[in-house]
């Protein structure tokens, strides 16, 4: 029962299709707050043009108070933890609303102001009462914004945990599998039999690769340099396996100062290796990492076999995870802070990924 209620509330607050109903409900609340303008006493209903104009001004001022706070002040200051600027601007907004309400009601000849006693203490009491009332409206709208933000964050965290776990498990299954290990061990056996010095290098790189996948990839964030080292080991092992294969990794900017969630780039690199095997020509993979101000730019270019079919399932090209899963993970990790471009030509396949860091 509780879960169902929470679902109904969160759906009403977040569902774009119910935006109109949310605003209509808010307008109803504001109407109920401001309708007291038409009563001087509980049994004296006064509906005159002056009162209607006075109520309209009051209604619009309260609307301004709520909407400016909910859509401007709270997102800009409160949600970013800037409490002091928020309190100052919110207080200024409250003062503006009170002055606006008083001015409009005076201009529209509200009879209530004519009958009020000219007592300074009464005027101060009215100002304090109005300030508290407007403050409660601001606090209420801020609470609603914070509650909505909390629901969105909880959803994002839950989805991110599920997506991260799924991607890590699929990555481990697709990257380190018996067939891959068998090929590496077989290469080591051949190199040892021929007494080639590369045998020791294969053992070292394979050990480093396994250490990353079993330890580093389980962390929340790792250094970009660790990710690049893993990709270098992975591509070097692939180069030992294949005679006609070359790769480059270019780094620009402060790479060591960048921390990122693991496994962001490996699916693209795996995809580049998986789909560029060519028995007739030399295949290549070129990686580029560039850190510029607060932005990381990653590009992966790989060759494609000349005889590759045109009817490949492009949605499943990216590292066994699928392009859809990778896009979803990027949306969860970097909402509105990334761009992904994929260029699929006849002779090459290019991935361009930019992240705000």
Can you put this structure into words, describing what you see?
With 357 residues, the chain is α+β, with helices and mostly antiparallel strands. It folds into two domains: 2-156, no CATH class; 176-356, 2-Layer Sandwich (Heat Shock Protein 90). Helix content is 60%, strand content 15%. A five-stranded mixed beta sheet has the order 4-6-7-9-8, covered by helices on one side. It has a two-stranded antiparallel sheet with strand order 1-2. The longest helix is centred in the middle third of the chain and has 56 residues, at 120-175. The chain is elongated, with a radius of gyration of 32 Å.
Short summary of the structure?
The protein is an alpha+beta fold. It has helices at residues 2-14, 19-34, 49-76, 83-107, 111-114, 120-175, 178-193, 198-214, 224-241, 266-274, 323-333, and strands at 39-41, 44-45, 222-223, 245-252, 259-260, 283-292, 295-303, 338-344, 348-356. Helices cover 60% and strands 15% of the residues.
Radius of gyration: 32 Å
Detail the poorly predicted runs.
Answer: 110-115
Gap from first CA to last CA: 41 Å
Determine the number of helices (DSSP H or I, runs of at least 4 residues): 11
How many domain units? 2
CATH class of the largest domain: Alpha Beta
Query: What order do the strands of the largest sheet run in, or round the barrel if closed?
Result: 4-6-7-9-8
Strand content: 5-15%
- Based on the structure given, which CATH architecture of the largest domain is correct? 2-Layer Sandwich
Q: Give the name of the CATH superfamily of the largest domain.
A: Histidine kinase-like ATPase, C-terminal domain
H/E series:
HHEEHHHHHHEHEEHEEHEE
Structural class: alpha+beta
